[in-house]
Amino acid sequence: MTLVGPSGPWQSVARSVGLTAPDGTVAATIFAEMSALAVRTGAINLGQGFPDVDGPDSVKEAAVAAIRAGRNQYAPGDGIPELREAVAAHQQRRYGMTLDPATEVLVSTGATEGIAASILALVSPGDEVITLEPFYDVHAACVALAGATQVTAPLVPRDGAFRLDVAALRAAASPRTRMIILNTPHNPTGAVLTRAELEAIAAVARERDAIVVTDEVYEHLVFDDVAHLPIATLPGMRERTLTVSSSGKTFSFTGWKIGWVCGPADLITAVRTVKQFLTFTSGAPFQPAIAGVLGDDDVPRALAASLAGRRDLVCDGLTAAGFDVAVPAGTYFVTADASSLGFDDGVDLCRRLPELAGVVAVPVSAFCTPGSPTWESLRSWVRFTFVKERATLEEGMRRLSGLRARR
Ligand code: GLN
């Protein structure tokens, strides 16, 4: 399809994540479309994942104090030393990873810029990059921007939860595999990759001498007895892995855009070289505020405990409404199959959901390559966020309970 407008790499970006309309125009991201729909219709927004309660006041006050103290000019391109040290201490304390904060930690404008800079720095046209499928849209968009080819390894629903298809992952690898991008805990499915799944990915990476970029922004938000395991801690992986995370989800400040990338000095040098020409630097007064709270595991622990209860509320509500639910072990999200309710097309359902039930959700197919087998098999799936106050979720579930009757 020809896109209307000047030719350029933006067109492959649009195609990679299905933002092209039949008339050749280009749409905004599915998150933007669905949030606008919620505003327009007054529906409850369970689409875009952002908390409706901010993080701690003390952290806000620290940012205010930093502004008043004059931390308003460029921060160093690498990030302020206190934050790089806090990130290194966090990785050591939680995962036993030892990092040199001077050369192995880079602060970025949210995880998004860290992922973008990693891909643009290390992937060339003609390379193949393996992502999971469904995938977070940024992963596919940046692979397209780099002129590389995306190959996917599906996560498939099995016994009420999504698991990596390890055989498909192995089949996706080739001598041209330059990078593997993973995401755990996983948006949109809420899967937390198991040690066996991570070992399978690590084996492919070692065999193909591929770099791994791992998007771990929901690292603290895991439920029940599930543990998050960074792939960089597996044998032979430290030297080939860029671990990307951020403070947005952990401390409920998604708009502050304070993220980071950790990895061996040679990979970080490559990423820094590109990153300094993207934003150069951002968030000067927010960096000290996050540096001050990153040692506090109680805030994310309390959030995870409360989210686990809200996950249950939404899983129960969706099941009662007639959806087939895949129970998430982490993240902000639950995915559910609407085919049991007679809806085969998640995009169509999400566009009509405000009118049918006064609720907004996001179709899972938006996280798939348009037309791929995974896209096809997950067409009737939709994603709901549960990072909203309980009363809002209860009202959302009450509204959805009448959906079957309105089919
Ligand atoms: N991470 C958010 C989500 O998955 C979306 C962020 C965005 O709007 N790009 O809902």
Automatic annotation (TrEMBL):
* CDD domains (UniProt xref): AAT_like
An example Gene Ontology molecular-function term: transaminase activity
Asked whether the keyword Transferase is assigned, the reply is yes
**What keywords would UniProt list here?**
Aminotransferase, Pyridoxal phosphate, Transferase
Tagged with keyword Thylakoid: no
- Pfam family for this entry, one: Aminotran_1_2
Q: Which InterPro entries match?
A: Aminotransferase_I/II_large (IPR004839), Kynurenine-oxoglutarate_AT (IPR051326), PyrdxlP-dep_Trfase (IPR015424), PyrdxlP-dep_Trfase_major (IPR015421), PyrdxlP-dep_Trfase_small (IPR015422)
Question: Which cofactors, by name?
Answer: pyridoxal 5'-phosphate
Q: Residue ranges of the Aminotransferase class I/classII large domain?
A: 43-400
Q: Which PANTHER family match?
A: FI04487P (PTHR43807:SF20)
Return the protein name: Pyridoxal phosphate-dependent aminotransferase
Annotated source species: Myceligenerans crystallogenes
